[in-house]
Amino acid sequence: MSISNSVVRQLLETCTSWRPQMYFKASLTALSHAMEDLVLNDSDTPLVIASFQRERFYRQESHRYKRIADKSDQVYVLAAPETEFGDRSEDYETIAFEPTDALAQEWHLVIIGQHYASCLVCREKSFSANDKERNYGAPIDANRRFEGIWTFNRTVTIEAAKIMLDRIGIYRPELAAKIALANQVYLSPKKVRQKKSNINSPLTNPDPFVQRLVTYLQASQYKLLKANKSLAAKQQKEILLNSVSDAVRRSLHTKQILQVAVQKLGEGIGVCRCIVYRCREEDATATVDREFTSPRIKSVRGQKWQLANNPLFEEAIATKETISVDNTLEDERLHKIAADKGTGEFFQNLIQNYSIFSWLLVPIFYQDKLLGVMELHHCETEPIAWKADDIALVDAIATQIGVALIQAEAYADLEDLNEQLEALDRTRSNLVAIVGHELRTPLSTIQVCLESLASEPDMPPELSQIMLDTALSDAERMRNLVQDFLTLSRLEGGGIEWNLETLSINECIDLAVSNVKARNHELELPQIKNLTTPKDLPLIQIDGEWLVEVLVKLLDNACKFTQADGKIAIAVKTNGGNTLEIMISDTGRGIETSSLETVFDRFYQEEESLRRSAGGTGLGLAICRQIVKNWGGKIWAESPGKDKGSKFYFTIPIKATRNNSEKSTQKTAKSKASSQKSNKKPKK
Ligand code: ADP
After folding, report:
1. pLDDT, tens digit, for every residue of 484-530?
2. For the segment 304-320, what is each residue's pLDDT rounded down to a tens digit?
3. What are phi and psi of 176, to 5 degrees?
4. What pTM does this model have?
5. Ligand 1, atom 19: nearest CA belongs to which residue?
6. Which residue among 516, 603, 605 is best mutated to probe the pocket of ligand 1, counting the most ligand atoms within 8 A of its Cβ?
7. Which CATH number is 496-665 given?
8. How would CATH label the architecture of 250-411?
9. Where are the domains of the chain?
10. How many CA atoms are closer than 13 Å to the CA of 304, on its beta-carbon side?
11. Does the Cβ of 646 fall within 6 Å of ligand 1?
12. CA-wise closest residue to 102 among 167, 30, 161, 58
């Protein structure tokens, strides 16, 4: 059975001069309690009708109704059932109504005794969409609003009781006799006899009621205050969290992010010291990077922090959670490692010299990757107990820092990438300029020569020979450039199959020297001397073709930049470890100290690329660097300066062990050279 008619509306239709008032739930609770106390503290035997919206609201008050039932036989409690509430006639009458019933939206308490009559008849105001928008969701319980009548007016109370009793009669017809009795005893005005001698009505003696009401209102006020206080604290923390998040996200520089974070957090949360350091899980130590200290607190910035065997750090890594130590002097984890020479001493030093009494260690993770650790220290003599709220706040800030750090790193990577792209772009432009120049110049010469030969059949044979030689030599230049481009691009693109073999370095040197001499047989070259003593040099493990390529390029350069009366020397020595160090020195034009590194860049030439006199492509050393890099070696240049000669060094791996089987597979450089000629890479 569900009645859709509102009791409040029904009552207002009867009592036309009454206007409904607005009540907050907190006030209704206080009023109801005060009214119930009136019954409990009086000798009267009243009619009591209480209608709760839901069973759960009734449950909070059921103990009171048990006591009220001791006072009177006419007690009726109504509610929409949620678990076991139902129609019963026990200590008092319980009446269940459907959740769709109008009563489910209303709150009633009607009390009629000999000494007093009072009613509270209200309907809950529904929460409008507008309200929801403003409050971001449903209202908090104490702020629910009701509209209706609360009065000590007996006539109105009797009307309210009539409506309620009629309804109870509909819900539970079997109570008809009891309801008729209630009507007869309480609702007929002439039956009410006020005993003047024992009057305790709030109308004549309001004190006890008012006192109770005030007590209940105080209690709800106190609750409200508490709620407000906790809200204010929450708000403050949110402000702090927002300001830290905002500040750290504004920067894309790691150091700035960390400094702002410790500063804001340290000030906001009011600790003595807040530090942060970058570290990885496997690090044994870290250096305190950024710090905030309150006045008169010693700084630990720049100090080395022990991470290996540090129980707090280890626990933070294992649990991925913040570790708190309320009192360093009593903490079991720290006691356990007190005797440890490394970590024990580290903690002892910190506790004694830097007065750390309470400690919070907050790991900064981003997707399971440890980025660093933030620590909060309390250094007053009285340790403090870290509050769950503060820990939650610090955790949230650590998460923000993690995100900011990752963003900063991503930005730095992007910057690197940008730089690389710019460098690539420069290289591309350079490449276009050089290719344009290098190819156009010889091409023009070849064209002029061939045109002259074609147009002047009577040209003297000596002149036509010069024309042909020039065209051929320029064609050779072009071929070299194209060849170097292709070689470098294959080396950089990783498209080379390396063929490791066991070789003798001296044979490779001899081959390279004869190669250089053969190719420059028309020129007067400086003297080339191999200073290597062959006896005790170990065999090398290398792709011989590429080794010869490096030697030839370095020797070519030495010849190119050294006068014919100068000297070129080659020396090899073992390097202590698993490598041989080869040196090619010359007495030529030398290299400025500032260019010793850049000579290995692609297209580097001392003279501007478009005004070169010595020939070459500017790719030779870049190719050498790629080759040496590939076998894990190093290449570098030394020079005392302009016109003081140069020395080029590079390292090559030696064969780890020497045994017979390896010796038998050893190829001679000469046999390699023949295979080199017969198939693979064309060299210059
Ligand atoms: P290039 O084809 O121009 O020789 P490289 O890459 O082999 O190209 O050399 C780059 C530049 O390094 C040369 O143009 C020259 O300026 C300098 N360089 C290389 N080797 C020597 C050397 N032995 N003495 C002086 N300068 C050298």
Report:
1. 888 888 888 777 888 998 988 999 999 999 999 998 888 889 999 98
2. 999 988 999 999 999 99
3. -50, -45
4. 0.46
5. 557
6. 605
7. 3.30.565.10
8. 2-Layer Sandwich (3.30)
9. 7-229, 250-411, 451-491, 496-665
10. 9
11. yes
12. 167
